[in-house]
Amino acid sequence: MPQARPLLLAALLTLLGGCAANAPTAPTAATATPVPSAAGQTAAGKTEVLWLGQAATRITTPGGKVIVIDPWLTGNPKTPAPFKQLQALGKVDLILVTHAHGDHLGDAPALAKMHNAPIYNGGGMGQTLVSLGMVPANLSQRFGKSGTVTPFGANGPKITAVHAEHSSELVWKNPSSGKDEVHYGGEPVGYIIEMENGFRIWHMGDTGLFADMRLVAQLYKPDVVLIPIGGHFTMGPREAAIAVREWIRPRYAIPIHYLTSPMLRGTPAEFTAALGATETTRVIVPEPGQKVDF
């Protein structure tokens, strides 16, 4: 029946168009060359994520606010050489630290004082930073798990602290004795960061697998998850794949916290293989120093 062919073709195109609309679209990845770029130049409606190795991340929001998370840079073997000069980050408006371990707290105190940018911590670490003289009181801001803060006002990014399954001791070298001391580092957390346009990122920091990841995902519906895969101290590829596939189901997953030491053996290839085929999540694997725009 020749008359039916155009109708069948139109129906098929409509069906295919609907499938394409449901699939996660590919973000725009910048060049993999690890060269610093000026922050605050994100196109309207875009969120820029710059990963710098381990958990160190710079997020530039659609409104031009720059949030730096877990800035272990000068001692990080995966951080590109240009970014070991802290000035290369450009402006910094806010610093988030997921817990007090040296590969996450890292250069946060130095950056805070350099930019007069407050360190926000949702796990109780802030008072220790002040009492040890690492930062002045005005640069340490406290809030708690399930708490949401709006540091830039009601129309700016919203930041919520959520649970992480880890530890958080703070090792500090006493300048008087020259010896290392262990101090209270608060509790580990992850952060849900909601941009001005509603786009949401879950930076998980360091965490093991826990079933309430499902609840966090249901409450905050993250579009992007930065998820540790190295193993030993955190989830490995298999556990991270379970979290993404079964519980979180984000549009995008970016593996972090791997191959900075011999103990962190998990790889993105293992994570992708463990995740398997999924219609909900696209895995993005940037090189340290590579930007991804969403």
Please name the defining characteristics of this protein:
globular; 17 strands; disordered N terminus; 22% strand; 294 residues; 7 helices; single chain; 7-stranded mixed β-sheet; Metallo-beta-lactamase, Chain A; 8-stranded mixed β-sheet; alpha/beta
Description:
It is a single chain. This protein is an alpha/beta fold and 294 residues long. It has one domain: Ribonuclease Z/Hydroxyacylglutathione hydrolase-like (Metallo-beta-lactamase, Chain A, 4-Layer Sandwich), CATH 3.60.15. The chain is 22% helix and 22% strand. The protein has an 8-stranded mixed beta sheet. Helix 6 crosses helix 7. The chain is globular, with a radius of gyration of 20 Å. The relative contact order is 0.16.
How are helices and strands ordered from N to C?
HEEEEEHHEHEEEEEEEHEHEHEE
Contiguous helical run count: 7
Terminal-residue CA separation: 47 Å
The share of residues in extended strands comes to 15-25%
Regions with pLDDT < 50 over 5+ consecutive residues? 1-23, 30-43
Name the strands of the widest sheet in spatial order.
1-17-2-3-4-5-6-7
CATH hierarchy class name:
Alpha Beta
Oligomer: single chain
Report on the biggest sheet. 8 strands, mixed
Task: Give the beta-strand count.
Answer: 17
Stated plainly, the CATH topology is called: Metallo-beta-lactamase, Chain A
CATH superfamily: Ribonuclease Z/Hydroxyacylglutathione hydrolase-like
What is the 3D shape?
globular
The whole-number mean of residue pLDDT values reads 88
Give me a quick take on this structure.
The protein is of the alpha/beta class.
